[in-house]
Amino acid sequence: MIVDGLHKDLSTLSVGVAGLGLIGGSVARRFARAGVRTLAWNHHDTPYEAARAEGIHCVETVEGLAASGVDILFLCTPLRAMDDILGRIAPVLPPQTTLSDVGSVKTRVHDSVAAAGLDRQYVGAHPMAGSEFSGFSASSAQLLDGALWALTFDDQTDYLRYLLMARTITDVLGNTFIGVDNATHDAAAALISHMPHVVSTALANTLCDSPDCKVGVALSAGSWRDMTRVALTDPARTQAMVEENPANVAALVRQVAQRLLDVADVLDDPEGRAIDLTAFFAEADPYRRYKKAQRDGEPMENGTLTVQSRSWRHQLVESARRGERITHVRAIREFDISWQRVPDTSDVTYRAL
Amino acid sequence: MIVDGLHKDLSTLSVGVAGLGLIGGSVARRFARAGVRTLAWNHHDTPYEAARAEGIHCVETVEGLAASGVDILFLCTPLRAMDDILGRIAPVLPPQTTLSDVGSVKTRVHDSVAAAGLDRQYVGAHPMAGSEFSGFSASSAQLLDGALWALTFDDQTDYLRYLLMARTITDVLGNTFIGVDNATHDAAAALISHMPHVVSTALANTLCDSPDCKVGVALSAGSWRDMTRVALTDPARTQAMVEENPANVAALVRQVAQRLLDVADVLDDPEGRAIDLTAFFAEADPYRRYKKAQRDGEPMENGTLTVQSRSWRHQLVESARRGERITHVRAIREFDISWQRVPDTSDVTYRAL
User: What residues does the Prephenate/arogenate dehydrogenase domain cover (chains A, B) (predicted)?
Assistant: First the structure.
């Protein structure tokens, strides 16, 4: 079988899933439900009986899974196990298999993949899905209903493998995706997840450190509950997540700290030459208008774009930066994508765009 | 009629409510539903027809309301109108009427009340209730179901007036309260509401200022949504709230900024001499255990306390700092309170207590 994202008949697609946790289990279930031949391995066989009942073929070793010749192998194991898994599969993974993963940080996974000599076969993936539960028993094909994926790349990423992944996400899984380079992905993930986790933790710490903590708890309402919800999740897992993306998190945390110090300066000295407080509170108005358009159920804006093989990386990143979510891929020599996004008229354009 | 919190027969209680917005309307409805003679005034008479249908007696002027001789007059007008209202009622408010309010910041209201020469009649109140809506049409007696109030005081607050307010909240409204001085109230309100609003705004601003903003929005999930929800509310109202409590907010915002900079330092230089990152993520463990006890539905701990007239302020603040919420007040010469709180064994005691 020759991997060819352009001509691959998706009705003959086969996939492998290493790691049947919440995300891996949901991915495997969704492929199996779509009629795709789905092989899976887990580091213990507890989920195998339930997985087999879902039509998932379970294999005994990750080496066996890697050697099976599936078109795409998704690594859905924890990041800390990645180097070990990659070392075990590298000697047996056939060149026609495209390697992917589902992790929330991409640069470090790519570095591990490159160290194992597999980066020419690799396309990173990150589905936006999750729940507060974990394990195969909590997984479901429905967890990915309406999911947006980030499909990531770097300068070495193979065009045809990327196209195979793109068509698989849209045509087989029925999901949407954005295409971004690994570095942009990790900066954005730090912005909307990793940094906020640190901030939420800092708020909870400030409460615990206050002589008024129980008075504060008594007075607390929705705003406090929302701002500290993620601080209540397992702090060790949060720490591990932050440590996987340290430079991006550090830079953003410094930005937030500086904004806070600016506000403190003007509150302490309203006549001073610090920032304009009204401007501080108005700065996010474009985001407020964007969220209002979304809340009001404004019809999605739709469009198509012809992506060319010599400029596909740049075109996909620019599409993502315009807020477009790719719904369909029609592969010819180039490929046409269809997208949708929340409408973005000139007065709701973000300042930076 | 002599105001006497010790001996007042609550079945003859009468109250006045100035301002029939969301909170004022709900307070008035709840008193009327409890069979209390309830007078009200609003700066326009739009809500009067609906209010009268609820058994609320509407009067034409705030001066008329103030002169009516009610036992307690609640000012439920916006803070910006407070000085004007106080100037109008000061000449006509009888000495037997106890003046209160429902604002979320207490020190500034007290200063305005003192400037109007009414501080000897004043007991501050702040019910923990609200919704995303506003106006009398959104108000309801049920909005205060299970509500906790902060009843505040300073060194001048009259013991018997405070007792009348306490008995009214528990026996008439069926709510609970904590007793704290105005300064402690405002510090705690800054901690769990005003400061988090600034932090949430800073996060939304950081998004808008990022070249990756739309990529971030595409990748965003529950943590981002929760952390920026309050930033989506009216920024002018948030700014006004923060500017009513500037010193407390500034101090707390600086504390959070310092915590964030400490984290950035250790992420940028893990071998450096910055903070212990594991300790940072574990610091709020007492709060996590407290919330878990609450989530798990641990039975509330109950107790009683005899509050003495010579030390009532100190005793009530200490009770609030222990996490006790006062459910009943039995007035004798001193008064006995009953309280309940989420259980707090030694291993869930907050560090600072």
Answer: 13-297
